[in-house]
């Protein structure tokens, strides 16, 4: 039976300020027979040089390689011979070689998938393994760290595959990663990430929210360039992100239970899943900072309306809040605002305003909305004009809420007194709350229409 796989990549801000707006975008399903089909993928890694994506295909007993657009390139490990894999679990790419944990030993390939050597055997001693799982390389000295899961330890080998040391008394360690400061170990049966210093002394534990008791589906995690921790939270269908201070900074909901996560050379989060109906999805999410450019690309040539603009965008992109984003973009589009054909208005008779008896007794009030906000956050101007003296008061407003308008009017009234008549255009901002204050202050609430 075909098991379904999903690759989802989600774009995040450069500098790893993971935005809350990331949502799946473009999906392309790949179903049926073929090399690009996966069956229970357990691990994903990106080659920093080529950007190629290497996925450990557990049930197909091989590693499949995709380019950065998730297009299949080649696979290795499933043909008979010395390099044949049996239930591969995890891989690490370092300096033109790929190390893969499988069965009860480690396989060593080059980046083209050519078999080089086999390290270790089944057992409990040095250079012996019992279900080796996660694997990592210390980039400063090329030491190799292996989760020797069923032996409840991390085993460390030198770059020429000699035993160096071991540490830990874990329940079932399934993933290991390294930074300059820490060795991170994910213990599946006791779901938390343990942080050790490089002398193997426990420093901290990050408790994950997951339950993580499925040994066949161990979660994995990834340390990005800024030392943020991305954790595939299998039990809550999300990717949890912790900052270098180990505070939870983000939770990206994903479509199903994620099994592994990594970040590619373009700061896209790649997540792999297992699924029952057999498909591969490739999702690309724009950065928040890119959204205006994307809307502009689909709107600025012919200035179509809301729905047409969104239809164009959705050929390639989608995100939560697309209607709001495109709507507010069009509302502030200068061309649309200045060229929009207004519906014809019937001619009305002009109603002259009788000359006021004295200054400041009959005033007009209106709000002017600016297209953009000032650096201090102001976007509206409240304008009051005395109809006798033509004296004008203008005050900046950040919003046009009743409260802010009333606060502003209060300051004006305290300085200039209360007019007898305040004329306005029945805008929603002059709500009943404001006209009620007019009533209390005995201001005639004189309305006119445009
Ligand atoms: Zn426009």
């Amino acid at each position: 039976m075909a098991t379904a796989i999903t690759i989802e990549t989600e774009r995040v801000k450069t500098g790893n300020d993971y935005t809350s707006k990331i949502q799946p975008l473009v999906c392309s399903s790949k179903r049926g027979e073929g090399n690009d089909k996966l069956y229970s993928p357990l691990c994903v890694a990106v080659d920093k040089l080529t950007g190629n994506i290497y996925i450990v295909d557990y049930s197909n007993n091989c590693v499949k390689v995709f380019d950065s657009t998730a297009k299949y390139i080649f696979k290795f490990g499933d043909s008979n011979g010395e390099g044949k894999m049996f239930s591969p679990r995890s891989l690490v790419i370092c300096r033109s070689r790929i190390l893969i944990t499988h069965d009860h030993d480690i396989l060593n390939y080059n980046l083209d998938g050519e078999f080089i050597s086999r390290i270790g055997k089944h057992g409990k001693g040095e250079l012996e393994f019992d279900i080796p799982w996660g694997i990592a390389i210390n980039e400063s000295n090329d030491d190799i760290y292996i989760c020797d899961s069923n032996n409840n330890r991390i085993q460390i080998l030198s770059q020429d595959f000699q035993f160096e040391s071991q540490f830990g008394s874990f329940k079932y360690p399934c993933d290991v990663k390294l930074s300059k400061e820490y060795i991170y170990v994910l213990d599946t049966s006791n779901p938390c990430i343990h942080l050790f210093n490089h002398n193997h002394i426990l420093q901290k534990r990050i408790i994950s929210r997951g339950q993580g008791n499925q040994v066949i589906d161990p979660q994995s995690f990834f340390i990005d360039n800024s030392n943020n921790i991305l954790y595939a939270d299998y039990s809550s269908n999300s990717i949890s992100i912790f900052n270098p201070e180990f505070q939870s900074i983000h939770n990206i909901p994903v479509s199903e239970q994620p099994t592994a996560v990594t970040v590619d050379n373009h700061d896209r989060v790649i997540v792999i899943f297992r699924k029952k109906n057999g498909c591969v999805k490739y999702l690309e999410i724009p950065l928040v900072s890119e959204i205006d450019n994307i809307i502009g690309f689909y709107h600025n040539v012919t200035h179509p309306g809301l729905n047409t603009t969104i239809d164009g965008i959705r050929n390639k992109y989608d995100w939560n809040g697309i209607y709001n984003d495109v709507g507010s973009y069009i509302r502030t589009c200068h061309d649309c605002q200045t060229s929009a054909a207004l519906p014809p208005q019937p001619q009305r008779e002009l109603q002259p305003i009788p000359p006021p008896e004295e200054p400041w007794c009959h005033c007009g009030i209106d709000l002017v909305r600016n297209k953009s906000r000032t650096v201090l956050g102001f976007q509206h101007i409240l304008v009051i004009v005395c109809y006798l003296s033509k004296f004008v008061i203008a005050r900046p407003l950040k919003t046009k809420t009743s409260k802010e308008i009333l606060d502003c009017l209060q300051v004006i009234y305290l300085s200039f007194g209360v007019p007898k008549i305040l004329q306005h255009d029945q805008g929603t901002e002059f709500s009943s709350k404001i006209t009620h204050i007019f009533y209390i202050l005995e201001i005639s609430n004189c309305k006119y229409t445009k």
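The chain has three domains: 4-285, 291-337, 362-447. The radius of gyration is 32 Å.
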